[in-house]
Design brief:
By secondary structure, the protein is mainly alpha-helical. It is built from five helices and no strands.
């Protein structure tokens, strides 16, 4: 009886190491490249028009439930605002505050999932543009 037990132990000792787990690394080895950002430029009128188009894109993206596009366009809007804000500082604090409210409405549209806020921002920005003309 000892002989079969010894043979079983020897067989397990020989066979079990052959069942080791092999790990194959399938993770990609490339690193992601950060997207490049273009800083907007132009006159006040051009930047306001660019902001109007961008808010329109946010409104359209939110209506289509394309949150990724809306977030991307919101980042573009913020860049345009960052460039425009110092340029209109001499036009009065009220204009700066009004435009900041429009940016906040666009932000609210995306972050709080409120598409109507983007529509409001678009309508109000058009009024601001007309009043400056």
């Amino acid at each position: 009886m000892k002989k079969p037990l010894v043979l079983s132990i020897l067989a397990m000792a020989v066979l079990l190491p052959g069942c080791a787990t092999t790990i194959i690394d399938t993770a990609p080895t490339t690193t992601a490249v950060a997207p490049t950002t273009t800083i907007p430029s132009g006159t006040n009128e051009q930047l306001l028009e660019q902001m109007r188009l961008t808010i329109g894109d946010i409104s359209t993206a939110m209506s289509a439930s394309d949150k990724a596009k809306a977030k991307s366009r919101l980042a573009d809007l913020q860049l345009a605002w960052d460039v425009l804000q110092p340029q209109i500082a001499d036009k009065g604090e009220q204009l700066t505050q009004d435009l900041q409210r429009l940016i906040d409405l666009a932000d609210s549209a995306v972050t709080r999932n409120r598409p109507a806020d983007a529509d409001k921002a678009l309508r109000f920005l058009q009024i601001v543009i007309e009043s400056l003309a």
